[in-house]
UniProtKB/TrEMBL annotation:
It comes from Sinomonas puerhi. GO terms for cellular component: plasma membrane. Its main location: membrane. It holds the Pfam family BPD_transp_1. Keywords: Cell inner membrane, Cell membrane, Membrane, Transmembrane, Transmembrane helix, Transport. It comes from the Bacteria. This is ABC transporter permease. Residues 70-258 form the ABC transmembrane type-1 domain. One of its GO terms (biological process) is transmembrane transport. Belongs to the binding-protein-dependent transport system permease family.
Length: 274
């Protein structure tokens, strides 16, 4: 009993130190970006910038190339989510509700696109895209983005569909509802939180996709992540900081909007379907 208090105090101190270290590790780079985006110049060993300015923000919003990159990102991400939903949600329902030969093989196979280094996969795709004349095309970029969303848009909704009690669907059928009515009135509303989480994860995956987009789309199509390569080489670091903040805004906003479902286990449950 006499040794428990010092030990508890030491444990509490270590926990606080660990929390502070994690806060510095997570918030530190974001704080550096925020300061850098408004700094006229900031050189070592000065602890604060030499001055403050909004000209880097004005440069980003007035540069036509950067504006086009923003427009392209806001175009490709929603289209990718819509196309992914149309393709993957029927498959997710089939995986959840039907037993068929090769079901587990196909489920595991959906991870294949994410189980290998992406650049190697994209280089292999590029050879196929040259043959099909898909290089430097919108369709080619959409296919690349779709590859990164398949696992989210299939596994998470599949788990959501599987979690809907069959007894509720059978009760609705016994009451005379058609299969379509049962799906639209019972199954879909109960699975909707999982589908929304999958849509948000797919949006973020498409919005942040860089390697494949650069390989397939450059030099005709640049999105915000691919434009970052040019920013690092051709613009002051303050412009890259501004662009990084703009790139992070949709991700942070969507994660904050969906954090209840993600923390509540929808994302984790999506990778536990059997």
């Amino acid at each position: 009993m006499q040794n428990s208090s010092p030990r508890r105090a030491l444990t509490g101190t270590l926990v606080v130190l660990f929390a502070l270290a994690m806060a510095v590790f997570i918030i530190g780079p974001l704080l550096w970006l925020a300061v850098r985006a408004f700094a006229t110049n900031w050189t070592y060993p000065n602890l604060v910038p030499d001055g403050w300015t909004f000209k880097w923000w004005e440069l980003v919003f007035s540069d036509n190339a950067l504006g086009v990159a923003v427009q392209n990102s806001l175009f490709f991400a929603p289209i990718t989510v819509l196309a992914s939903a149309l393709i993957c949600l029927p498959a997710a329902y089939a995986f959840a509700r039907f037993e068929f030969p090769g079901r587990r093989f196909f489920l595991i196979g959906l991870f294949a696109a994410n189980a290998f280094p992406k650049m190697g996969l994209f280089v292999s795709l590029a050879a196929l895209f040259y043959t099909l004349n898909l290089m430097n095309s919108i369709l080619g970029i959409l296919i690349v983005h779709l590859l990164g969303t398949v696992v989210f848009m299939t596994w998470i909704p599949s788990a959501a569909f599987a979690a809907v009690p069959r007894s509720l669907e059978e009760a609705a059928r016994d009451a005379g509802a058609s299969r379509l009515r049962v799906f639209s009135s019972v199954t879909l509303p109960m699975a909707l939180p999982g589908i929304l989480v999958a849509a948000i994860m797919s949006f973020l995956a498409s919005f942040d996709e860089a390697q494949g987009t650069y390989l397939v789309g450059a030099p005709d199509y640049f999105t915000m992540p691919t434009q970052m390569y040019t920013l690092v080489l051709n613009y002051p670091t303050q412009v890259a900081a501004v662009f990084s903040i703009l790139l992070a805004i949709p991700s942070v906003a969507l994660l904050l909007a969906a954090h209840k479902h993600i923390v509540g286990g929808q994302l984790a449950e999506g990778f536990q379907i059997k």
